[in-house]
TrEMBL record:
<dbReference type="Pfam" id="PF10672">
    <property type="entry name" value="Methyltrans_SAM"/>
</dbReference>
<feature type="domain" description="S-adenosylmethionine-dependent methyltransferase">
    <location>
        <begin position="94"/>
        <end position="254"/>
    </location>
</feature>
<dbReference type="InterPro" id="IPR029063">
    <property type="entry name" value="SAM-dependent_MTases_sf"/>
</dbReference>
<protein>
    <submittedName>
        <fullName>Class I SAM-dependent rRNA methyltransferase</fullName>
    </submittedName>
</protein>
<keyword id="KW-0489">Methyltransferase</keyword>
<dbReference type="GO" id="GO:0008168">
    <property type="term" value="F:methyltransferase activity"/>
</dbReference>
<dbReference type="InterPro" id="IPR019614">
    <property type="entry name" value="SAM-dep_methyl-trfase"/>
</dbReference>
<keyword id="KW-0808">Transferase</keyword>
<keyword id="KW-0949">S-adenosyl-L-methionine</keyword>
<dbReference type="GO" id="GO:0032259">
    <property type="term" value="P:methylation"/>
</dbReference>
Length: 293
């Protein structure tokens, strides 16, 4: 129903990503060379997929490095304000024109189904929730309570829309995640399942050291917010934060708070985001599911 159909270098088309959301397509171009083929790309997509609409999500700052303008617009067909997607057991709304990235985080699509064994009967804290994909699934899988947290009120409005569509109850909190986890930690609050999926902290190699400190601070609090025997799902989408470095960070954070952890699962981007191993940062998404003792 929904998948990434073009993933840059991994598909031999550097600078281009194309996502399919049912009858709708969303693409993003980040290189000058690919920009020159934009009209042809749209024609090919129309011919191959016969979509109802195509959205150009060329509104990312990296385009400025290529001297390209930032813009998001419908380039073909008619796009409704929201489209409804089926993902595992959930129905999720997506805003392809204004939502983050190309409108929906397809790279976490498979991982959202992984929370099923850990959610039953648990209180759940879903941090940096965007449209609530993880939290909505946790609620459907039997969580006793779900709190979704994001700094964007627009994202939380989408969470509430998704909760209503799936007939589940979640609470939403608009807050800076660092401030919130500090507040909850100092108040002694704990949850049976904590999900932490922040935006990329390290967007350049020179920012990696400070990003590691940020990831460690956030995950340290998340570990403390997880009840003994509970579970933490923690992710990083920073291409410069390698899986070994991410594991090292979490191990050090667990040592600092005196909470032993057991690794249950390792996560990566969904299979429709294949990593070309000759492209240095194609394997950018990594995640860990640990039990916190």
């Amino acid at each position: 129903h929904s998948c990434r159909v073009v993933f840059g270098e991994s598909d031999g088309l550097p600078g281009l990503t194309v996502d399919k959301f049912g009858d709708y397509l969303s693409y993003q171009i980040v290189s000058l060379g690919m920009e020159q083929w934009q009209d042809t790309i749209v024609e090919i997509l129309i011919d191959l997929f016969k979509p109802k609409a195509i959205v150009a999500r060329n509104d990312v700052p990296v385009r400025e490095k290529e001297g390209l303008p930032q813009e998001a617009k419908v380039v073909y067909g008619t796009l409704p304000p929201y489209i409804l997607l089926k993902e595992h057991d959930a129905w999720l709304y997506a805003d392809l024109l204004h939502g983050q990235k190309t409108g929906h985080f397809l790279d976490q699509q498979e991982n959202r189904g992984h929370v099923k064994p850990y959610a039953q009967g648990k209180t759940v804290l879903d941090l940096c929730c965007h449209s609530g994909g993880f939290g909505i699934h946790a609620a459907l899988y039997g969580a006793s309570a779900v709190e979704c947290v994001d700094v964007s009120q627009d994202a939380l409005a989408l969470v509430e829309k998704n909760a209503a569509e799936n007939d589940v109850t979640v609470t939403t909190t608009c807050a800076n995640v660092f401030d919130l986890v500090k507040e909850y930690d100092e108040a002694g609050r704990q949850f049976g399942l904590v999900i932490c999926d922040p935006p990329a902290f390290a967007k350049s190699r020179k920012a990696l050291e400070s990003a590691c400190r940020g990831y460690k601070e956030l995950n340290l609090r998340c570990l403390r917010l997880t009840e003994p025997g509970g579970f933490l799902v923690t992710c990083s989408c920073s291409q410069f934060m390698t899986p070994p470095l991410f594991e090292k960070m979490l191990t050090e954070a667990a040592g600092d708070v005196g909470r032993p952890i057991r690794l249950l699962e390792t996560l990566m981007q969904s299979r429709d985001h294949p990593a070309c191993l000759t492209a240095e940062h194609a394997l950018y998404l990594k995640g860990l599911i640990v039990q916190v003792l």
